[in-house]
Protein: ORC1-type DNA replication protein
Amino acid sequence: MRDDPEEGMLSWDETVFRDEHVFEIDYVPETFNHRETQLQSLKYALRPAVRGSRPLNTIVRGPPGTGKTTAVQKLYGELGTQSGVRTVRVNCQVDSTRYAVFSRIFEHIFEYEPPSSGISFKKLFGQITDRLVEEDEVLAVALDDVNYLFYENEASDTLYSLLRAHETHSGARIGVIIVSSDLALDVIEELDGRVQSVFRPEEVYFPVYGVDEIFGILRGRAKRGFHDGVIGEPELDRVAELTAESGDLRVGIDLLRRAGLHAEMRASRSVTLEDVEAAYDKSKYVHLSRCLRGLSDSERALVRVIAEYDGEQAGTVYEAFHDETDLGYTRYSEITNKLDQLGIIDTEYAEIEGRGRSRSLSLAYDPEAVLDRL
Structure:
């Protein structure tokens, strides 16, 4: 036992973190292990851009938290240093319409945002392609979380414009990488025939990490992010175990950070198993929090209504939603389908006597956890 009871305590200006940014979701690690095959496949697709040709169009698929975005960011970081190549990654959870996607591309190319109104899509598109031709640049666009474009019925128009750019604007060279975490979404099947005819992509799949892989990745993050001695093997084992149960590496990365913050709250220099367990109550909802952040006001309103009428028939939910938002049934149905595809709600069909087949709606998570994060 220590003679000084405060020997293991942090003073007010101390921290357990060496570099807290290491535990941010958008952090790109210097070493990116267990994805060598996927990186090679993506390099193969992107290599033509270095020679001045259009990159091969590619679908990147896999469950959430399997390294898809990190792989694209890492390769785009390398490719962006090459002369004659322009790389743009668009987060479709934020930019979920064709106009928003091209506004983001415009911003990357011109380094300022286009006017928020008064400029047509045709003009916006023309300015982008004209600049690419003038600068003799190849554009590699990554549509990250492309499933959000499908949820908003914007995917076909967006991809059609990108893939046909060389026909409408001679000399424009654009390749597309689409990244999807929705394994239930058949990307090709859901696209219009006009897009299917020109979009014949390579496919790169990212499987869930194994427990040993998760432990190795998290240990590397902990070594870079924490000071020496802050977290031990038993605690790392528990973090890896909880991460493997979720299947999402982002849960583990967030859990390390929250466990560190919990230790700091106790003014402790080290993370305990109790810190890990306490932090997990929030970290396990990383995917839910991310999904909710991308919702519009009307979509959030429907989530609140479903929380109040959990398990009720769709008609009852619609009436309450309409009373709150004044939106019609068509928009209600679109939002319901989107929330179902995102995994925020569960829909269940049943035969109701005298009414035929009816659908009930309920939250896929604890209602309190959902409402806390709206």
